[in-house]
Amino acid sequence: MQRFWEKLRILRKQHKMTMRELAKALGFATHGYIGDLESGRGKPSLELAVKIADLFHVPLDQLARDDLDLDD
């Protein structure tokens, strides 16, 4: 899951969301943790990874596996 942060940033930007909007959609009070995830400083729990996959309508393994790229 080393590329998770990169994929999260791509998905957020593709959906024209700010970090604050994404944090709110995921139930966080602030966007600091999203910043940590996108910079690679944080690691998501399985529950959060599932929420992100559901939010952006992508398979979880596409987010989690470094050998799979996002579909265009």
Characterize the structure shown.
The chain has 72 residues and is an all-alpha fold. The protein has one domain (4-64): Orthogonal Bundle (434 Repressor (Amino-terminal Domain)), CATH 1.10.260. Helices cover 58% and strands 0% of the residues. Helix 2 (19-25) packs across helix 3. The two termini are 20 Å apart.
Helix content: 55-70%
CATH hierarchy, class: Mainly Alpha
Number of helices: 5
Question: Between the first and last Cα atoms, what is the distance in angstroms?
Answer: 20 Å
Gist?
With 72 residues, the protein is mainly α. It has 5 helices and no strands.
What are the defining features of this structure?
72 residues; mainly alpha; 434 Repressor (Amino-terminal Domain); 5 helices; globular
